[in-house]
Amino acid sequence: MASQDGEGAERAKIRVATVTIFNNKNQNKMKDFLLVFRTDYNTMPKSSPEEMQASTKRWMDWIGGIAAQNKLTDRGNRLVPSGKVVRSDNVIADGPYTEIKESIVGYSMVKAASVEEAAELAKGCPILKIGGNVEVREISVM
């Protein structure tokens, strides 16, 4: 009887080790995704300081929700409207292009098992409430 109990304990240890290895492999399948936030600067409402504070809180709550799921890789940042564009012929021009309606206004990085899961995380983004959109792109590690 003692040998059977010893064998049962060994089998249980093997099962635990197998489950641990399986779970670790599934965690390693998480991929990084870039969330690119776009909107038309010209249609963005002018906000009072109180409205700006409320908007910042919505963004921080959304980002915090992703972080609470342990899926936030980099909270990212906002981008200023102006910048430069370097062309292939090394000409530097003012940018981004004004003829493009939407501008990239910020970004974040998340980790998810699939692009569909990352897109689900993006659904709560506050940019959507002001007519913007979120592009979800998988990052290909070089």
Mean pLDDT, rounded to whole units?
84
Distance linking N and C termini = 56 Å
**How many separate structural domains?**
1
Q: What would CATH call the homologous superfamily?
A: Dimeric alpha+beta barrel
Radius of gyration: 23 Å
Q: What's the level 1 CATH class?
A: Alpha Beta
Q: Helix count?
A: 3
What is the fold-level CATH name, i.e. the topology?
Answer: Alpha-Beta Plaits
The coarse silhouette is flat
Total number of β-strand segments? 6
Flag low-confidence runs: none
The CATH architecture assignment turns out to be: 2-Layer Sandwich
- SS strand fraction: 25-35%
Q: What can be said about the biggest beta sheet?
A: 4 strands, antiparallel
Order of helices and strands: HEHEEEEHE
Instruction: Name the helicity range.
Output: 25-40%
Largest beta sheet: strand ordering: 2-5-1-6
Task: Tell me the structural class.
Answer: alpha+beta
Write the layout of secondary structure elements.
Blueprint: H1 2-28, E1 31-39, H2 49-68, E2 72-78, E3 83-86, E4 92-95, E5 103-112, H3 115-122, E6 133-138
Antiparallel strand pairs: 1-5, 1-6, 2-5, 3-4
